[in-house]
UniProtKB/TrEMBL annotation:
Belongs to the clavaminate synthase family. Signal peptide: none annotated. Keywords: Dioxygenase, Iron, Metal-binding, Oxidoreductase. This is TauD/TfdA family dioxygenase.
Amino acid sequence: MSTGTAPVRPLDTAGAEELRRAAEQIHTEFGTSATSPGLLARVAESAAGLSEPVRHQLRPVDTDDGLFVLRGLDVDDDAIGPTPAGWAAAGDSAAVHDIVLLLLATVMGNPLAWEGQQDGRFVHNIVPAPGHETEQTGASSTVLLSPHTEDAFHPGRAHLLMLGCLRNHDSIATTAAGIRKAELDEADIALLTRPLLPILPDDAYTGARDFDGGHPPAVPTLFRAEDGLTLRFDPAYTPVADAPPAHRAAYQRLSDELARVSVAVSLRPGEVLIVDNDLVVHGRVPFRARYDGTDRWLKRASVRVPGRRTRPPAEAAEHGYGQAAVEAHAA
Ligand SMILES: O=C(O)CCC(=O)C(=O)O
Ligand SMILES: [Fe+2]
């Protein structure tokens, strides 16, 4: 893995100030970031009222890199309080930053929540949790979180993923690898664009593993979209061993290429990593959790971007293992 840098998109001081004020205003009105229809409507109204320069700076990912780091927002380390000891304990911790992310997500598209994940919240807390150290979920720590497409098992998955950093004293890196940086043979692309293997729901979803409403659908790993390749990749939840040897070898070469082009992004407080979930897989390096209130703390939001044509049309028929994606704003 390289320590190559991710592109940075600066948010100017006036823009950062405008966003902060908008989020504080909503937080004052509602006293929580728990999303009611009223709060979501208020977020939509507030996002629509942001100035044109800010809205321009907050446009979605628009390069083949498939990611950027938004820099310019501030986090007050004292004001946010201690890092919660797991998402379930987070409640309204640093709620104003939830609202900042909701505003960002609403400018870029439509925020997405899952009934079966983190109590249906639109903004997730990514913190290490005791007892979950070795999982392949955001709550883990001591293991490498393998590169993955977010919510790869589901046809309603995000187009954009936002990871906003509140605290990261040990500079623990998120990893990101873009499919359009990878060099692949035409023969491998031909194999991997065939739907052969399913992607099973990950352990962050309560209930999805017990789904008995149909066979796991086989899905392609790669897709040729109009403007280039996209991917749907989650090796930790893909039964790769079931594939014929030639397909397995191609899948391995893809994994190796993604590792080769991967960059490490050590987010600093206030920075928001925005990845295009169709172009870039992300993961995280292993670390030792502190469990003393000073642990790494990210806020995560998922975004649908209406009208994107980055995925095979056949996805529309998938059952999604009974998991319901909920969009914040009516289309
Ligand atoms: O902790 C990180 O940097 C990324 C974790 C992750 O995969 C996620 O939050 O979706
Ligand atoms: Fe993830």
